[in-house]
Batch of 3 targets.
Target 1
Amino acid sequence: MLSAKSLFQEILDNDESFALFCSIAASGESQGGWENARIAALVPESERALAPKITRHGADEDKHGRIFNALMKKRGLEPVPVPPETDYTMLLEKHGIGLAHEKLKGEEPLTVQDIVTYLAHSRVTEQRASEEMELLRKHFADHPDLGRAVRMISNDEDNHLAYCHEELLRLARAGHGRAIQQTLRECALAEIRIYRNVSLAVMARMGRILGWPRAKSATLAAGIHAVYVWERAAGWRRMVSLKMPERRDALGGPANSAPELA
């Protein structure tokens, strides 16, 4: 029977599929680390209080990238090239979601609207990351090799999501509510489409590596399309709602290191 646990267990048990999974994850996290570091450096003067939190966000992402690389190294594996169609972070940027890399490579200070865009984009993508890590934590929190990494990354992603909620609510109270809601909706609708496409591409790659029969691959693809239909109809709304989180000031301190993992 197909299940999230059995599917990931297959990927985990095969060196080639595990290396691809970790390489895709490490690449995305490292890219997120760079983006946050550049945003922290370019924060406008009126939002300078955010800079340490953005820096912490980026440090966490860098740490996650190191953790995924360490998991490969532990099994004697080397990172593999990330197929362009599976590169979630770069595809989001290519489709205009978040802040353009050309802007981040410059030295011009960002605007408050840029910060709104950054936080809205992060609120949507961190929702996805938090849910995915919660799924892995549910099934692999006690795994001898993955458990500690899964628990640490999942906790960080929950912190990132809480931070986005709190800061967007602050900006909404400052008069940016309409821009926030519009940006959140645009990001969410684009993200669910890109996530579907990336999921299909990743599963196709995994299917070839693991030798899945055509019927199994077709069933998985149908499931991905079904999730997209639900998200397009109603599920996207969970990505745009805002509420004060239980974790307040979640990124207010220094990033936790993971020397034993990375």
Target 2
Amino acid sequence: MKPYFSFQWHITDECDQRCKHCYIFSGGDHICLQSMTWQQMQDTFYNCLDFCEVYQRQPYFYLTGGDPILHPDFWRLLELFHEHDIPFTIMGNPFHLTGAVCQRLKALGCQKYQLSIDGMKETHDWFRKPGSFTCTLEKIQTINQAGLRSVVMTTVSKQNCQEVPGIIDAVVAAGANVFAFSRYVPSGGELDTTLSPQEYRALLSVCDRKFREYEAAGCETYFNKKDHLWTLYEYETGTFTIPGYACDGMIYGGCNCGNCHITILPTGDIYACRRVAESKVGNVFEDRLADLWITNMEAYRNYDAFSKCSRCKLQQFCRGCPAVAKGYTGDFYGDDPQCWASEENGLLTPKTEENEHESCSA
């Protein structure tokens, strides 16, 4: 188990945007916007600390929403974090960021502020709202000047995959400290999600080339290869090799679901993964997290149940994205639709009647 544990905590649904790939709004009109009360926020915070004390993990909070800064007790919660010397990242919108706001975030222990860019100007503003693209790029320097690390995240779909190289250029030019992307999970919206494995691998190849060029030129932006299929790509290209110390049955990397991450929504509902709608495992107002970790989370640690990954040489380091698999196939342990590992390229052991039966029964 990793030494830290991350809590993606959504304190409110309130938001200035209605993004087309948002898990709150993409399925249609979201009539009732939820927010935690101050008492609920305190109860949640101490429930999380209790969990970390029981399992000897270091707590790390990713505070988000909606836009968390819109919650009336946002600053009160950050003062509670500061009182307990708990590090945290804010994942929000750019619209309410000023120099004074960012300096206050820094003083209270915020380490990073994550923004989103999901295309070049026309595409991004279509995803989110007019003016969002320009505002987001401008606020990167506001974040940096306060001593926070600026993080830019892109959600990749069929609609914007061709624009990712341009996004990289834009965020580097704006001075972003970190850039990463992950794939869109089908959630009932209007986005085309039909990227083939070959198309996605080609995107990784283009991005890898750009990352290397920027790094060779002394670029200070850190390119976080967040998507686990980067492991597959780097294994093929020789950048990643399976370490000699690797032991059978040990998990060294890949999806953190069931390992070092949970999501808490404004309703108190606890999810093994925010991007898997059916992964609710309890409610933070009613359940002790330390107990749920054993009783309700074990199903997400059944690594041999993966229909494809369980036959792959990279099972201990990759496993693709189970949320994407669930969104496409309806099966959390199903095949990642953008994974190109196969028997032909030597990564998968051939299917046998025995292992096919085991995958089905799991």
Target 3
Amino acid sequence: MEYFAYQFHITDECDQRCEHCYIFSEDNSKNLVEMKLEDVEKVIDNCLDMCEKMKRLPYFYITGGDPILHKNFWNIVKILKNKDIPFGILGNPFHLNDEVCERLRENGCRKYQLSIDGMKKTHDSIRKSGSFDATIEKIPVLRKAGIDVAIMTTVSGTNKDKIIDIVDLVVENNVDIFAFARYCPTSFEKETHLEPEEYKDLLDRLWKKFEAYKDSGTTFNLKDHLWNLYLYEKGLYRIPEGLDKNVMYDGCNCANCHMTILPTGEVYACRRMESPIGNALKNRMYDLFVGDTMNAYRKYKQFEKCSKCELLRFCRGCPAVAYGYTHNMYSADPQCWKEVL
């Protein structure tokens, strides 16, 4: 059976106020929400019911804010362990130590994702002074406990010239997984914009770097969907023959195998854009997933550019980035360089 991923934000509480954070993008003084323990278990059971009906296996990405700051964090991971649900953590480095990491592993945590958004000066300016050093220090602590370390980078015009250095850094520090995603504007500002050819050039430089490090032990996760376009044009990816033309096989996971749940219980089709579809404390997750509101994210023929492209079923760029620029997720991906008729 295939996995269905839930990005579960259990708290807004966080030690940082990152420039690209969805929670604090408009209001650093907002009221912080934390989901009650009994509601967390109710949401988990709701998701299990959905997966049972869909014959999928659940996987949870527990996040926040910083999820470890939830006052019932250890009770929450114990619930996941007792229900035999695999999970990873998307969090910060500040509260990790040998004891905490060992306890995480004992409770079933498979992977811990940290962020590096540049070398020290750039990273700390985006996140928090001291964040860079703390992140580097906690990589071996997590690995010693037997937890895979993933490093995620948010790419924008601010740090585009630092990404190659980050790849060198993660390999040097024996990181298990490296991936990046593009910055999604939370308003119409364009200061961090990357032009399509500029982004294609970045992918080309990264691909050469990934190839040089292919035996390093670090896995390079080609998370951004435009990688499929890049590899297709290089002849390294071919469209499989004999597939159902009405099925989406790759690319954006929105409305396919991923949902986001916020501390209020509100469910989003994608956390990277305004995409509410219901509430996990009031609605059945299965009904939300197959319902009309979610179906709006499956209207692939409405995608202005992707619907005309032979890679529609395998790419679709990033609707969330498109939404961030235009407030229309069906508009063209602003970094896609491909010309379509």
